[in-house]
């Protein structure tokens, strides 16, 4: 079995734990399992990216870089930077294109706003950070908002609530793709109190 390519999108003012939480989950699941289930990398429009609170991050690939692997899993994190990113048509077009061929499209926190702006939440259910429910309703009028849910699994599109919920979502995906035991081992190594 070949590894799933996991592309984690980065942009300025991305929330750090939104992308680092899933990055850690998928990387730990890969590093501590002989089947090597995931190949995790970051993608952005430019380099470096200045994440929340000034953290400088060098993405593995740029959006249109020919060497960038095609993602099987696309992770779209949130943060204050989503509001600016929502205006970047090139970025939205890239998200749409990757989502069309990806096995799963995932969002963390206000990353749901980017999925909504890209037209990927129409007719689905979603959640987001508790402070952004009204924003999501405005951007996604044809989406059912579930404010009491930490994770919403629509099949090929999975969204999570705010920040740390991205860890739970990533563990949910590990369990869905490779079984509950691999997800439990990953959470145990991370010393994360996961309650599936």
Give an overview of the whole structure.
This protein has helices at 16-31, 81-85, 89-101, 111-117, 133-139, 165-178, 180-190, and strands at 4-9, 38-44, 49-50, 56-57, 61-62, 73-76, 104-108, 125-126, 144-145, 151-153, 157-160. The protein has 196 residues and is α/β, with parallel strands linked by helices. The protein has a single domain (4-190), classed as Class I glutamine amidotransferase (GATase) domain (Rossmann fold), CATH 3.40.50. Strands 5-2-1-6-7-11-10 form a 7-stranded mixed sheet, with helices on both faces. A two-stranded antiparallel sheet has the order 3-4. A two-stranded parallel sheet has the order 8-9. The radius of gyration is 15 Å and the shape is globular. Residues 6-175 form the DJ-1/PfpI domain. It comes from Candidatus Thermofonsia Clade 1 bacterium.
Task: Sum this structure up briefly.
The protein has 196 residues and is of the alpha/beta class. It has helices at 16-31, 81-85, 89-101, 111-117, 133-139, 165-178, 180-190, and strands at 4-9, 38-44, 49-50, 56-57, 61-62, 73-76, 104-108, 125-126, 144-145, 151-153, 157-160. It has a single domain (4-190), classed as 3-Layer(aba) Sandwich (Rossmann fold), CATH 3.40.50.
List the helices and strands and how they pair.
Blueprint: E1 4-9, H1 16-31, E2 38-44, E3 49-50, E4 56-57, E5 61-62, E6 73-76, H2 81-85, H3 89-101, E7 104-108, H4 111-117, E8 125-126, H5 133-139, E9 144-145, E10 151-153, E11 157-160, H6 165-178, H7 180-190
